[in-house]
Specification:
This protein has four domains: about 1-220, P-loop containing nucleotide triphosphate hydrolases (Rossmann fold); about 230-335, Translation factors (Elongation Factor Tu (Ef-tu), domain 3, Beta Barrel); about 350-445, Translation initiation factor IF- 2, domain 3 (Rossmann fold); about 455-565, Translation factors (Elongation Factor Tu (Ef-tu), domain 3), CATH 2.40.30. It is about 30% helix and about 30% strand. The protein contains 14 helices and 31 strands. Strands 23, 24, 25, 26, 27, 28, 29, 30 and 31 form a nine-stranded antiparallel beta sheet that branches. It has a seven-stranded mixed beta sheet with strand order 3-4-2-5-6-8-7, sandwiched between helices. The protein has a six-stranded antiparallel β-barrel with strand order 10-11-17-14-13-18. Helix 4 packs parallel to helix 5 (about 105-120). The longest helix has 26 residues, at about 425-450. The protein is elongated and about 115 Å long.
């Protein structure tokens, strides 16, 4: 039996300073390296008790601790990452709820509180960004010893902010107060004022966390069962090793050579642990500064990197457990944990992401803007995904979203790929792409429609009477386009315009007032048409109805009425 280090979940609203707080503790700069400045994966950092004692030396006194340290789990704050917060909150023994002291409780703060309630997780509030309050800029060290040096007016301002935060917490069902004013931590939530930027108040936070874990959690931190159990956080390609899995071991002991069950792209598989690697203390598992150290075994709780032997394809977000006991029940429980939360559509875009949590967040964002999803999977974009997207009937669904994953296929016509490492940018990129595709479709349909035009066959401008007939026309109104079908004033068809020229220049269209030469096959000037004839575009009834919805000018609308009148001589209800 041993006492493991408690797992500390770090939750809160986006940009309230969760990763910055951990950066201060470990002396790292992970937050600045995050795509878009936000956390998009669960991270893990192990802080040994010796480091905690060093940071808290001015306020720790003679206290001693039996816990070996704290294992911090950093979760995303953006609203799309609900599942990752739940996943991080569900394995946490205790949590830090980071709140911007100026903004108070925000939407993801509220959701984080629901996660903590659901799993009955004790927590401490880190009232961050006090350095932005007047009188606290540049302050460092512990909060309590500094009170004597702060002007009374500034302390009152801080207390007002803390009172507002306590009132908000009360409305959410929690009694909360500044930590040094609490006598019963089982009834009240501790609020620690701090600055993640300068480290001010961080010693107080660590002391409170370690004290609460030691006092109230020691019984549940005792490990008697050595069965390895944890969660795969992320899967990546490591040069020289192949596929490796970053994971949290939250119970038991994992050993090299052991077999565990976990989720893969080919279903639940028993995989042999070929290698185990551990980050150095204070290093971040998802973005380490130093090389991981190979180890033969690891005791919970710990952030580790696992090299599995075999087929690979491990699904990030999957639980794993040592393959012992009732394997069927264990397999079913893992399958339930990794089931996708969306119902695929027969017509829709293809969504790919690097993790299960990222995929869930992507599906959530797409659902909010009512974008149908045909396929949503973890992994790189493959040729198969392009085939899936290309079979969509609706052009604006011929899109693949690659969220933080590579695209193996570089050239595939008719399918647009949207690549982005920041999830909240994907929605804007997608909406823009779909609108561009729609506009292109409209333009293509408009080009295919026969546009209203009225022409005069000019006298003395016949250049060839047939094969093809080439003669000059004046555009009396509307637009004459290449391939436009023409008819005479009696409604009889004379065929399509083969080409339009002015001098040596070929044109796609000619506008009102222009004089151009046109070429037409299948007619002879002097027979089917004569100099001085007036010709109209031969618009079919479908195009006529569609053109009525277009923004035509006065002359074009007059030509439309003339064409309708000509047609109604033989079909009384034409164009209705």
């Amino acid at each position: 039996m041993w006492v493991r280090q408690p797992i500390v979940g770090v939750l809160g609203h986006v940009d309230h300073g969760k990763t910055s707080l951990l950066d201060n503790i470990r002396g790292g700069v992970v937050a600045s390296r995050e795509a878009g400045g936000i956390t998009q994966h669960i991270g893990a950092t192990e802080v040994p008790i010796q480091e905690i004692l060093k940071i808290c030396k001015d306020i720790i006194g003679s206290r001693t601790f039996r816990i070996p340290g704290l294992l911090f789990i950093d979760t995303p704050g953006h609203e799309s990452f609900s599942s990752l917060r739940i996943r991080g909150g569900s394995i946490a023994d205790i949590a830090i709820l980071v709140i911007d002291i100026r903004e108070g409780i925000m939407p993801q703060t509220r959701e984080s509180l629901e996660v903590l309630k659901k799993f009955k997780t004790p927590f401490v509030v880190a009232a961050n960004k006090v350095d932005l309050l007047e009188g606290f800029s540049g302050m460092k060290g512990a909060f309590i010893p500094s009170i004597r040096t702060i002007a009374q007016a500034r302390l009152e301002e801080l207390d007002n902010k803390l009172f507002q935060l306590s009132s908000q917490m009360y409305r959410e069902g929690f009694s909360a107060d500044r930590y040094d004013r609490i006598s019963d931590f089982t009834r009240n939530v501790a609020i620690v004022p701090l600055s993640a930027k300068s480290g001010y108040g961080v010693p107080d936070l660590l002391m409170v966390l370690a004290g609460l874990a030691q006092t109230f959690l020691e019984s549940q931190l005792r490990n008697e069962d050595e069965t390895a159990e944890g969660t795969i956080l992320e899967v990546r390609e490591e040069k020289g090793m192949g596929e490796v899995s970053d994971a949290i071991l939250y119970s038991g002991v994992i050993k090299r050579g052991q077999t565990v069950l976990t989720g893969t792209v080919n279903g639940i598989r028993a995989l042999k642990v070929k290698g185990i690697f551990k980050p150095k203390p204070l290093d971040e598992i998802r973005d380490p500064r130093d090389r991981f150290l190979p180890v033969s075994e690891v005791r919970a709780a710990s952030g580790i990197r696992i090299l599995f032997q075999g087929e690979g394809g491990v699904i990030p977000g999957s639980p794993f457990k040592e393959a012992t006991g009732d394997l069927i029940t264990l397999k079913n429980s893992i399958e339930d944990a990794i089931k996708s939360s969306f119902k695929p559509s027969n017509e829709g875009i293809v969504a790919k992401a690097d993790t299960v949590g990222g995929l869930e967040a992507l599906v959530y964002e797409l659902g909010r803007i009512n974008v149908p999803i045909k396929k949503a999977e973890v992994g790189p974009v493959s040729k198969r995904d392009f085939t899936e997207a290309s079979t969509n009937a609706v052009p604006e669904n011929k899109i693949i979203i690659a969220f933080n994953v590579p695209v193996d296929v570089k050239d595939f016509q008719d399918v647009k790929v949207i690549e982005n490492r920041v999830i909240y940018s994907i929605k804007d990129d997608l909406l823009k792409a779909r609108e561009e595709i729609r506009q292109k479709e409209v333009e293509e349909k408009r080009k295919a429609m026969t546009f209203p035009c009225k022409l005069l066959v000019m006298e003395g401008n016949v250049f060839r009477i047939s094969k093809p007939a080439i003669f000059g026309v004046r555009v009396l109104g509307g637009k004459l386009r290449s391939r436009t079908q023409l008819m005479k004033i009696d409604g009889s068809s004379v065929g399509p315009v083969k080409s339009i020229r002015t001098g040596e220049q070929s044109l796609e269209e000619a506008s009102q007032g222009e004089e151009v030469a046109i070429a037409m096959d299948g007619i002879t000037v002097g027979r089917q048409i004569k100099e001085g004839d007036v010709l109209y575009s031969d618009i079919n009834e479908r195009d006529f109805r569609l053109l009525k919805e277009e923004n035509l000018n006065v002359d074009e609308n007059m030509i439309m009425e003339e064409i309708k009148s000509l047609r109604r001589k033989t079909s009384p209800f034409w164009g209705s």
